[in-house]
Amino acid sequence: MDAIVKMLEKHQPFFEKISRNVYLQAIKDGFLGCMPIVLTSSIFLLIATLPGVVGITLPQPLIDWCNKLYNFTMGVMGIMVAGTTAKNFTASMNRRMPAGKVLNDGSTMVAAQCSMLLLAVTQFTTKLDGSELSVFDCTSMGTRGLFSAYIAAFITVWVYKFCVSRDLTIKLPKEVPGAIAQNFRDIIPFGGAVIICGIIDVVVRNLMGVPFSELLIKLLSPLFTAAETYPGLILIQAATAFFWFIGVHGPSIVQPGIDPIRLANQAENLQVLLAGGHPAHSLTFNMSLVGEFGGTGATFIVPLLLILFMKSKQLKAVGKASIVPVAFAVNEPLLFGAPMILNPYMLIPFVAAGCVNVSVAKFFIDNVGMNGFSFVVPWATPAPIGIFITTNFQLIALVFVAIIILLDAIIYLPFLKAYDKLLCDQEAERAAELGLESNGAATIAANAPAPAVEQTAASVEATVAATDSEPVADQPEPAAEASAKKDVDGLKVLVLCAGAGTSAMLANAIKEGAAQTGENIASSAGAYGQHTAIMDQYDVIVLAPQVRSYYNDMKADTDRLGIKLLAPRGKEYIDLTRDPAGAIKWLRENLD
User: Fold this and answer.
1) Share of the chain above pLDDT 90, in %
2) What is the DSSP string of 43-72?
3) What is the pTM of this model?
4) I need a labelling partner for 43 at 20 to 30 A (CA). Which of 6, 196, 477, 507 fits?
5) Measured between alpha carbons, how far is 336 from 351 in angstroms, rounded to an integer?
6) Does 472 or 368 have the greater pLDDT score?
7) Residue 359's closest CA among 301, 411, 426?
8) Pairing mode of beta strands 521-527, 540-543
9) In whole angstroms, how far apart are CA 92 and each of 108, 147, 301, 532, 533?
10) CA 517, CA 488: separation in Å to the nearest integer?
């Protein structure tokens, strides 16, 4: 097992390179930027539908209003994702542009949205009350249009790069205000992107008789069908856990490619549910509540196992510290504290638990009558609650939750016990060594006079104790301490992780530490990929371990803006989240 882990460590740079792929990053960050649409629209949908589950009939105008809000948010998801993906892809492309040549991310964002409409939306005419109207078919403006959104975003940014790199722009005299001149510079690349997507639209519609968005779904449907089988679900979950195990954020690699079909399937499940049928899709957006039950690795039950059944001080402490975060799917304190990442004892259960969970979920959906997930809930919703909600409050879902908790406990317990025995032996050895050292030191101290330096220290401590007992005037701080305070005084710190979970923990620790030490430090938390618009407002940016693979890209941006970039390792990062004063001390030590 150790040999396997060493081999994985050897190839870790390769996997990190995959996670840094600019296309995957743009898709992930673009989708993340639109998550408020998904979550907010789902709230209105829940308001409109869930009261009926318990026999409460809402006024029809209220139901219609909630459905309208849902349709006007989730219904334009594809258009919005086209813009946010282009914006994030533009940011990555600007790092590779020649000096003095920059792509306008606001312009690429709008161009991508227009291009996406050309690729995904069908326009036709109809008659209403004797008048001829021009109508949009909105079917592909939402989640069904996500593939078109990605294609439109990438084409747009590449066209802009081509034109700007070669100065294929309209240049105005220097006397023209910058904002106006920029609008004219963007005309050629904007028009080029829209024309290319328009040509693609015409070709596909004439050859295949469907819009581009439907063509992709048609061509990739065999792949999606395969992904929704037992082997497909297991492969997706195993890959997600495997990447995380070697220290690379697995969801960032695996999920961008399947998010369009996961969202489309969940939307289809919802339509079937509202029509009174059985939602049968298992590959859905909130299947992550099952495969990542308590976080990647299905670790929901692990902290409780550590507290109840482990004997080593390390694992019991990790269990107590991580039980609340893991309940909300923030399992980094467990992953880096135990640790589970690159721990030979944990490889098998870490990968296997999620695979078993999704297999059981598919069995329940296909054979037991449990609904496929229909309502979208936030990723940080405690998994048992989220599963109960998104299956439309089915009691069988609670039975399913109980079964997978039991199965995960059975999978993890033998491996945790083996690792616990190793740690207990190590702790016993350390205790024995400390005991010998302590006995030896006591013997020497009993037979030898105290060194002069120790006597001096004792007298100094006595003097300090005496003076502390009396009120004294304020004294200036020592020069070294004043310098240390000056280094951090007035700092603004931004902590970034994959989903703003553990970053919030460290940001809160820094706030608490600043209050304890009297430092003037402001700290905020965010998700990597959504930081570009605000990063110039901060003096220090801290990268969490799960996004450490983006260090080089981030360093280029922080160096350009004069921002200090810090990237603590896994256990160090988790320790800082638990030690507010230590977090302030760490900031001081790492500032130049």
Assistant:
1) 34
2) HHHHHHHGGGGGT----HHHHHHHHHHHHT
3) 0.70
4) 507
5) 16
6) 368
7) 411
8) unpaired
9) 13, 20, 39, 10, 13
10) 11
Q: DSSP string spanning 239-273?
A: HHHHHHHTTS-HHHHHHHHHHHHHHHHHHHHHHHH
Which residues touch 159 (CB under 8 Å, ≥6 apart)? 189, 192, 193, 196
Please tell me what DSSP assigns to residue 393.
S
The token pair that represents 20 in the structure block: 């840094």
As a whole number of angstroms, the distance between CA 451 and CA 445 comes to: 10
pLDDT tens, residue by residue, 369-415:
999 999 888 777 899 999 999 999 899 999 999 999 999 999 999 99
Which sequence positions are flagged as catalytic?
497
Whether the per-residue pLDDT at 153 is higher than 70: the answer is yes
Instruction: List beta partners, residue 566.
Output: 542
- pLDDT tens track for 2-43: 565 566 556 666 666 766 778 888 888 888 788 888 878 878
* Residues near 182 by beta carbon (within 8 Å), at least 6 away in sequence: 104, 107
CA distance 495 to 497: 7
Q: Is the peptide bond before 303 cis (omega within 30 degrees of 0)?
A: no
Q: Where are the beta strands (DSSP E) in 421-569?
A: 491-497, 521-527, 540-543, 564-566
Q: Which amino acid is at 40?
A: T
Say which residue, 396 or 337, is predicted with more confidence. 396
Tokens encoding 227: 């992904």
Q: Where are the beta strands (DSSP E) in 363-520?
A: 491-497
pLDDT tens digits for range 60-76: 888 889 888 888 888 88
Report the alpha-carbon distance of residue 138 to residue 120 in Å, rounded.
Answer: 9
- DSSP lists the bridge partners of residue 540 as 493, 564
**H or E element: which one contains 137?**
strand 131-137
Residues 34 and 83: their CA atoms lie apart, in Å, by: 10
Written as six digits, the tokens of 3 are: 């040999």
- Which positions ≥6 away from 180 have C-beta within 8 Å? 172
Long-range contact set of residues 207-211: C-beta below 8 Å, sequence gap at least 24: 211/119, 211/120, 211/121, 211/122, 211/140, 211/148
Q: Give Cα separations from 499 to 171, 409, 482, 531 (angstroms).
A: 42, 26, 36, 12
